[in-house]
Amino acid sequence: MRQGNQFQSPIGLVTVFLTGDVISCVRIGEFLQLSDRQQMENEVLTSCRRQFEEYFAGHRKTFDLPLDWKTISGFQFEVLSLTRRIPFGEVRTYGDIARDLGKPAASRAVGKALGQNPLPILIPCHRVVAASGHLTGFSAADGITSKTWLLQLEGHRIVAEKLG
Question: What is the pLDDT of residues 138-158, one digit of tens each?
Answer without folding.
Answer: 877 789 999 999 999 999 999
